[in-house]
């Protein structure tokens, strides 16, 4: 039983590796060397960002939106789009609570 699970896991690992290699080959066809180098560096630092950019570019290529190899500037603009989409805008909300038995009307500091 363990051998069957091990064999299935190995087959699945090989399929995943083959898919990754196919995606990398497609990206090499779609990107200029400068853009490919940038993607490789991004994979090292932020693999999830590299996956999103790769998915976006492959999707655009399959729809016919990409006619020639992407240059570094175009690749940067795609990165910017994904970064903007993923950036969470932080909102700071101050919740003011009364302290002790202070009343806002009981003390008037204007006359000091």
What does this structure look like?
This protein has helices spanning 2-30, 33-45, 47-63, 72-86. α2 packs antiparallel against α3 (47-63), α2 packs parallel to α4 (72-86) and α3 (47-63) packs across α4 (72-86). The longest helix is centred in the N-terminal third of the chain and has 29 residues, at 2-30. The protein is 66% helix and 0% strand.
Itemize the secondary structure elements and their pairings.
Layout (H helix, E strand, L loop, with lengths): L1 H29 L2 H13 L1 H17 L8 H15 L26
Task: Please give the oligomerization state of what you see.
Answer: single chain
**Range of strand content:** under 5%
How many DSSP H or I helices?
A: 4
Order of helices and strands: HHHH
What descriptors fit this protein?
single chain; mainly alpha; 4 helices; flat
Short précis:
The chain has 112 residues and is an all-alpha fold. The protein is 66% helix and 0% strand. Helix 1 (2-30) packs across helix 3 and helix 2 packs antiparallel against helix 3.
